[in-house]
Structures are given as structure tokens and as C-alpha cells.
Fold each of these.
Amino acid sequence: MHIRQVTGGLVAALAVTFSLTSGQATAAPAPAQDTAVAARVVTYDASGSAEFRSAVDRGAAIWNESVNAVELVPSAAGQRANIRVLADNGWPRAQTTSLGNGTVWIGRQAVIEGHNTIRISSHELGHILGLPDIKPGPCTSLMSGSTAGTSCTNAYPNAAEKSAVEGYFGGALTRKSGDAPLNKLIVD
């Protein structure tokens, strides 16, 4: 699991150890400057993603490699997932219901046109993580989507995209103007 480093002495102030010899409580020594905090876990169900299952898993792994504040994990059997991933014959799209929640469609139309399935998956998951489209855009921008062309296979978010997701999930889980719209279908 990815962790985010947080500084502060709150944990030290709350930590107490009991001495085995005297039975009295004593303050624990102050921990190192950084204290680990677990990432927010967002589950996804790719059981409906058909032939794109491995691309969806790779797209989730790319986000896990790229950011610390959120971790995408497959949902357990019977568990309601935060993200539902489906395959269909249309164009790739996402519908975000709230930050970290929604539905992704890996559309075969873009794949038939030659777009990379892992880039599609990572891009659509980026919408669920709060990112809007950046169109037109270069291949170095994951959220440029199809405007980068079929030769673009970059499935990794750039520094600005990583920073935005870290801010969304590492902070107060709030959204701001310019974020991916909620309850609106984003067709890429």
C-alpha cells in the first residue's frame, strides 16, 4: 500500500508507553519527523471490462505508481466497488458521481481507430480521480486523451496531473473549478 508522509507532533503527543518496571505511564520518545498515513483506497470492479481487463489493471497500477494519496485496488467478490469499468462498442468515456466514484467505459471505437488501451484506461480512471480533459494537448499529458493521436502510448500522468490528484485525495477531498464535472458523461 502506498503511504503519504505527514509531518507533525500530534502522534508523539498521543503516544504513551507503559514502563514494565514501575507500572507508570511515561511519554514515548518523539518519533522521526515523518509519520506514515495510509492512502485512501478506491476500489474498482473490472469484471465487465471484457478483453480490456489487463489494460484496466495496468491503468490502475500506473496511478498507484504515480501518486501516494490514493490507491486503486480491485474490489473483492460481492463488494460494491467505487469504480465500475465496462467495455462497449462506443467511444471511451467516464461518469464521475463523486471524487473517486463513478463508471468508466472502455470503448472499442477508439481501440479500432488505433488508440492504446492502457492509455485509455489510465486516462478514464484519471477522470474518476478528479481530472478534466486537457484538449488539445501533447502526448506528455495523459488527460489530453485522443488529441495526442494514435501514436501516443503514454499512459502516465504528468507532474501537474499527479499534483492535482495528490491534492484532491491528500487534502480535504474537495473539488474546485476546472475539475472533472460530476454526474456528467465525459466522452473522450
Amino acid sequence: MTNTGRRGRERAATDQDIRRTARALLVEQGPEAVTLRAIARELGITAPALYRYYGSRDDLVEHLRADVVADLAAELAEDIAQLPDEGALQLFAICKGFRRWALAHTKEFTLVFASPAGDDTLSRLGEPFGRIFLAAAGRVLAMHDLVTPSNDVVPAELRDDLTSFQEELLAVLKESGATFPLEKLDLGVTYLMIQFWARLYGHVTLEVFGNYPIPFSKPDVLFDAMLADLAREIGLSTE
């Protein structure tokens, strides 16, 4: 390719082209394949040309991760759009939709949920997936009397961390438009929410990477049973 031809290709490359190419590399080969050099090669341009759009690979990957999260949230929003405005029904539909999406998009799941997070982990609650999940949780808190741990059950060593998380939760729930008695979101409920997410995320992660201790011929039944256990423990139903 002549220098004139290369410069023309570089001018023609757009942010949309870059993100589309990065997403294709992610889906086909995984997060490690998403490099500026690989994207430039696919687009037929030089790697330095990409710095017009992104300062580094990390910058590009963060934007790619945000695109994936937005797509996940849109899919989950569609799942619950036709459901009654009842927190528990929507919350468990979101849980099931999250698992379905993760199993169908393993490379995207790896990028977003199975890669080391930066120091801004708490701020990600305000992203589309966090908002839709927490909005449903807020409706559950508003509409149900849950069986929750008392504050004195929370280990003393965890209280400072949980207090910070509690403040972030309150801010995100307010921004989402959720209305619920603020006193319901005490440290016991905050502790419960962390445990709920850990069990949901842990189950899905083990399944996505094929690391469950034994193979199950009907994994859907196992997942539904786990959700039913979680619901029963806090006085809800998944039906």
C-alpha cells in the first residue's frame, strides 16, 4: 500500500469502526486479543493512527467494556419490560437473564466480570447493569418485609467497608428513581445484598468456565434451585 493510500485509510477509520473491530476480536478470540496492533491490522491502518481516538489499550478496553455492559442492560430491560412492576419477579428474571447472557457471551462475560477491576469498582454500580439490578432490588426492599440479618450479626471487621458500600447503594438507588424507606437499607440488608450477589455471580462464573465440581445433566434446574434457596432464605418466592 502506498503512503497516500495508507493515509486515506487512516482518515477513513472511525471510532465506530474501531469499536466494531475490537468487539469482533473479543468475541472471536477473547480479551487478550484486543490490542491496538491487532485492530490496526484488521482495519489496514497503522497502530499510531488509533491514538487519535484512544490514549491507550486500557482506554479502548474500558470503552469496549462499557458497550458490553450497555448491551447486557438493554437485553435485561427487555426481559422485564412485560413483567408486572413487582420487585421480586423482576429481580429473579434479571438473575436468570444474566446467566443466560453469560453462557451465550462467554468472552464478553470474561472481559466485564472475570477480569481484574480497577479502584473504581463501586462507581460501576451506576452503570446500566448495576442500575437495572439495583432498581429491582430497591423495589423488593420497598414492597416486601424481608428476612434479613440484624446489624449485630455483621462482623465488626466488615462494617466500615459495608458502610461505604451502603452509601453508594443509597446514591444509586435514589438516582434510579427507586422509592423505599431509607431505614430499610441498614448494614444487615447491605450485608445480605453482597452475599446475594456473591452467590449468584459465583454460580454463574463456575458454570461459564465449566468449573462446577460435578457435571449436571440439567444445569437449568440447579440454577433455579439456587435461586429458590436464596429467595426462601429472605422470605420471597421466585414464582
Amino acid sequence: MKSTINNTVEFVKEKLEGAEAGHDWYHIERVWKLSKKIAEAENCNHDVVELSALLHDIADPKFHNGDETLALKISREFLESQQVSEDIIEQVLFVIKNISFKNRGEVPSELPVELKIVQDADRIDAIGAIGIGRTFNFGGFKNNLMYDPEVPPSLNMSKEEYKKSNGTTINHFYEKLLLLKDLMNTEKGRELAQQRHDFMLTFLDQFYKEWNVD
């Protein structure tokens, strides 16, 4: 499986060349490393964890007109080309299909540990200093305002509302990023998320002071 993992790394690097900086190869690499770190403390299939982490954003729907099937199609075709067993392919596709924050209301109540691990890793990369950088990068990519004191965060959005949202970057902290700490599945995930969550609170406090010239 080592050679398959290496081939997957090269495939993903090539596929995501030129991608938006918050969802590029470096994001994948961080999630891959975080997944392996979390997996050390869990009883899991490490091959499924690594392949899922590497392929989880191979075709992010928000960059493909909302198509949630494309990533599954690309991943299946690639894994079949590597002679990966059908059992592992199905497990990887399950992770890819159910990992997203916006889909959290649609996932089964009992989740496989491999999904829990990769989901935690993906969410950890969405918070802390890296998360702040990614959030502002994506906000700029969409030409969203950084902040508007007159526009409150939109809490409890439906999946469709979330997908169509063009709110401010600061509002995104309240609509998603600050919620992630309490959505962690694993003990290691909770530990890593707490540190990054606290950093975001410090950042927001400083942001408001500077915005208000306090």
C-alpha cells in the first residue's frame, strides 16, 4: 500500500495544481499529516485514513458548481486504477461523501473511526492561525467584505443557505469556525482544536480593537 499512497500523493499534487490557496495541495498535506497524528491513538485502518485524507478535497463542490458526485467519481476511478480493493474504495468514498461541515445534518449517527479521524483533521486545518489565513484568502477569492458591523452572522443556516452564503469573512468565524471545537470526534482532535480555538478568540479580540481604533 506504500506505493499506492505515494502514487496518490503525486495524483493529488497534479490534480490540484493552481487550486485556490486554502484548498490546494498544502491543505491536503496538512490534513494528511494531522490524520496520521490522530490515527496513532486510534484503532483504525491506516490505509483508509491516509487515502481518505489525500483524496477528500480532490474536487471540492464549491469549485465545481456544487457537484457533490465529482470527487467520488474521480476517487473511484483513481483507486481502481491502483488495484485498491473494493472494500477499501467503499470506505474511502464514504469518508469523502460525509466529511463536509455543510453535510453534518445528513450523516449517519454511527460513524466509522476513519471518518472521525479525517474529519477532525480537516476541521482542525480550518481553525487556528492556518484557519484564519485560509478564511481570509477564500473571502478575498470570493470578493467578500472582511467585516461589516451592520451585518450580523447568519446562524443556523440550512445546507442550501450555507452553500449560497456570501457573508463577511468575520461572520464566517461565528457561522462555522468557532463551532468546530465542539464537533471534534476524537480526544486528540479535541486537544488540538482547543489550542487553535483559543488563538482565534485572541485574534478576534485584537481585530475588533483595531477595527474600532480602540
